[in-house]
Amino acid sequence: MESFSDQLRKQREERKIRLSDVAVQTRISVKFLEALEAENFEIMPETYIRAFIRDYAKAIGLDPDDTIRRFDLYTESLKVQQEQKEAEVVEKGSGKPLNLSNTQKIALGVVGIAILAVLSYLAFSPNKKPPVTPDEYNYENTRIANERKFDSAYSAVTKQVAKPDSSRLVLAATDTVWVNLVIDEGRTYDLLLKPGNRVSFWGKRKFDMTIGNAGGLLISLNGHEYPPLGKTGVVIRNVTILKDGTIKK
Questions:
Q1: Alpha-carbon distance 189 to 207, whole Å?
Q2: How far apart are CA 26 and CA 59, in angstroms?
Q3: Cβ distance 154 to 196 under 8 Å?
Q4: CA-to-CA distance for 218 and 200, rounded, in angstroms?
Q5: Is the Cβ–Cβ distance between 39 and 75 less than 8 Å?
Q6: What span, in angstroms and rounded, lies between the C-alpha atoms of 44 and 213?
Q7: What is the three-class DSSP state of 214?
Q8: Measured between alpha carbons, how far is 141 from 30 in angstroms, rounded to an integer?
Q9: Which of the residues 19, 26, 102, 145 has the least number of beta carbons within 10 Å of its own beta carbon?
């Protein structure tokens, strides 16, 4: 049976949508999108996995809520399979198998089969209409995103130098926060900040951001501090801070 991630990738490919197009539309780095399609969730911020899946589904024309339900069913089936395996493992320190009755083992098996059957029944429909064509995307932004590596927050700080008429943006994390930052529609950074991390960036016109766990990020521009742009655990999308300090959402 295909994995959840394999089904997502197949749906994207059938719609002839490139991963770079999904990255531009969602502002999620290609690195995380590749991890999503490879079911390599370990390298992704755990807090945002479901948000990433929801945005990915929208970008390729799938129903986000339906996709999340399928993800929950799939992870539950994996959990049941793991419990079945553990039932056969020797109890730690006893040298004896775990004492599960035949009824319990059968029940675990039935639950696992039922979940897999439901997941198969809810297999992604090929009749879904694709989103807007890739031609409608800004391919110049795609080219820039593909050519530039998503620098870490720490190397980004050392590379930037203040320029005349530039504004200084400072991001300070009080909790684990994911930030996608685009400066002046050019330089793009995909940041995973830990509590205590503080980084600075320079720009001439504006800073566009998507913030995961908005309540854990403090922002200041040219020394002016803003209150958190959202609550803890909330994802704030498409926030723009202009050079004069105006915030647009």
A1: 11
A2: 7
A3: no
A4: 12
A5: no
A6: 14
A7: helix
A8: 13
A9: 102
Contact 22, 12 (CB under 8 A): yes
DSSP 49-65: HHHHHHHHHHHHT--HH
Q: Where are the alpha helices (H) located in 123-183, listed in sequence order?
A: 139-147, 153-159
Confidence of residue 207 (pLDDT cuts 50, 70, 90): very high
Burial pattern 189-216, b for ≥16 Cβ within 10 A else e, equals bbbbbeeebebebbbeebbbbbbbbbbb
pLDDT digits (tens, 9 = 90+) for 84-98: 666 655 444 444 544
Largest CA distance in the chain: 75
What are the extents of the domains in the chain?
4-134, 148-248
The residue assigned the tokens 């295909």 is 2
Distances (CA, A) of 142 to 146, 201, 210, 211: 6, 22, 17, 20
Q: What is the C-alpha to C-alpha distance for residues 183 and 242, in angstroms, rounded to an integer? A: 10
Distance CA 61, CA 15 (A): 9
Q: Which residue has the tokens 């490879």?
A: 38
For the record, the structure tokens of 169 come out as 């943006």
Q: Which residues contact 177 (CB under 8 A, 6 or more apart)?
A: 191, 192, 193, 211, 212, 213, 214, 216, 217
| Residue given tokens 């056969």 in the structure block | 88
Do 214 and 236 form a contact (C-beta atoms < 8 A)?
A: yes
User: Are the beta carbons of 54 and 26 closer than 8 angstroms?
Assistant: no
More confident site: 82 or 7: 7
- Give pLDDT, residue 117: 54
Q: How confident is the model at residue 9 (pLDDT cuts 50, 70, 90)?
A: very high
